[in-house]
């Protein structure tokens, strides 16, 4: 079987997590229960998930685990997971790169920017309710531009995975490039933004989102007639048909398919 490549283009953050009995009031100082930090960012999280899933599948096909490979090795898999993005030339940047390497992710197309800090997410978790408050500083993620990404795409992957934690013009540019080159693209529109250009949907292979993200994206389509009112039946094999005008989520799925999304 020929080797396949999945390239994730997106954010790399350090999560700074504080747990506290309750959220402090303005001007109030509280003693927290605990503090931890760890690798994060939607892009990096997806890269690690892809690497672990491909490794698990590979191990299931083996009769016995190899004793010659490190525990995190993915060298026997026929799938290469490649992460593309940017971190700072700081402790957190090195920490993130080491974390990805330990999960068998190819980091050769991650840039370390000397003048920008690694992106961070400050997360305050209220233990009594489980609710959290998150402050994201993009840092080096904001430097990810179409020009900085294109060199990593000279050798085209089999699938490109994108999110919305890097500049939107970069995401749109990469999606258009993928369509032009015939490469499947998967978009996880998180954090969701209203008024995502309709051209993004046309020819997009995969659109994966939760209910709240679907609601935000569909808000920009409010001036269109609902797909269920258009009496339009989608092509065979897409698995979604607008047969019940009272089914909101069914209608949302149908509308995205109508705009050109395959899956």
Q: What's the mean pLDDT score?
A: 85
The parts where pLDDT drops under 50 for at least 5 residues are 60-73, 225-243
Instruction: Classify the secondary structure makeup into a structural class.
Output: alpha/beta
How far from one another are the termini? 25 Å
| Number of helical regions | 6
Query: Describe the biggest sheet?
Result: 6 strands, parallel
Helix/strand order, N-terminal first:
EEEHEHEEEHEHEEHH
Q: Tell me the strand percentage band.
A: 15-25%
Helix content: 25-40%
Write out the strand line-up for the largest beta sheet, numbering strands in chain order.
5-4-1-8-9-10
How many β-strands, per DSSP?
10
- Shape by Cα distribution: globular
> What is the CA-based Rg, rounded?
21 Å
Overview of the structural elements:
The chain has about 260 residues and is of the alpha/beta class. Strand 8, helix 4 and strand 9 form a beta-alpha-beta unit. The two termini are about 25 Å apart. It is built from six helices and ten strands; from the N terminus they run βββαβαβββαβαββαα. The strands form two sheets. Strands 5-4-1-8-9-10 form a six-stranded parallel sheet, sandwiched between helices. A four-stranded mixed sheet has the order 3-2-6-7. About 15% of the residues have low confidence. About 25% of the residues lie in helices and about 25% in strands.
